[in-house]
Design goal:
Length: 290
Amino acid sequence: MGAFDGVHLGHRAVIKAAAAQARRLGAPLGVLSFEPHPRRFFTPDAPPFGLNSPAQRIRLLEAEGVEVLYLLPFDAELARMTAEAFVEEVLTRALAVRHVAVGFDFTYGQGRRGDAAQLRAAGERLGFGVTIVEPVAEAAGVKLSSTAVRAALTAGEPRRAADILGRPFAVEGVVRRGRGLGRSLGFPTANLPLDGYVRPRAGVYAAHVRLPDGRGLSAVAYLGGAETVGPAEERLEAWIFDFDEDLYDQTIEVELIEFLRPDVRFDSVDEMTAQVQADAERARELLASA
């Protein structure tokens, strides 16, 4: 049970603990989470902060052996529900849980007044077990948390984010038509909207692209919305190397591997073209040695 934003290594430790109990009890392994994220409910005007799309989260949970995903609508009614009522009405009456695994810092109920220790006590009273997962060993000296992933990405440190996630951070979206400037200059890009994703540091990245058929290809990607040589528009553009197929209206995933340089404005198209070619060469070298 938890938010599971990003399904990072700490989240996976909680799922692993639940899976062990599911095997012992002969019960299905489920994840209980919330939609929208509680942070979005309480601060609707907050900047985008998502670490995965709903489809990505489902695939990540399936990869961990999760059989059932319960998404509770996080609304005013749920926000007002006391910790005691949540346990009795949701966990016991609605889901009939036999065991629950949570992280050591898990909180629940109105005002986040319930914690893991209270949940364990409630379980003893109501007849279900509770496993409290202690902090997992830190990755490269960083706490395993969604907040730490966001901090790494906004600092332009995708490798540190990957250490916490256990995989590269990836933006998934439907390829849309752009202005066609890149194609006219010799580097066609697949353009994705950023939608609800957290905004990593604007700039250029060495990247991997996952196509709908499962192929993984190397790329150089631009992320941001600065006015380079035209109107500003927040976007992610990936130039896939040695690739010339139509991807419009198809869903792809772009993994950010290494930050190459910050976003800059160019005085001319020629200057921009020369820099993109240099970025591509560096990305090829980095990805070949990774």
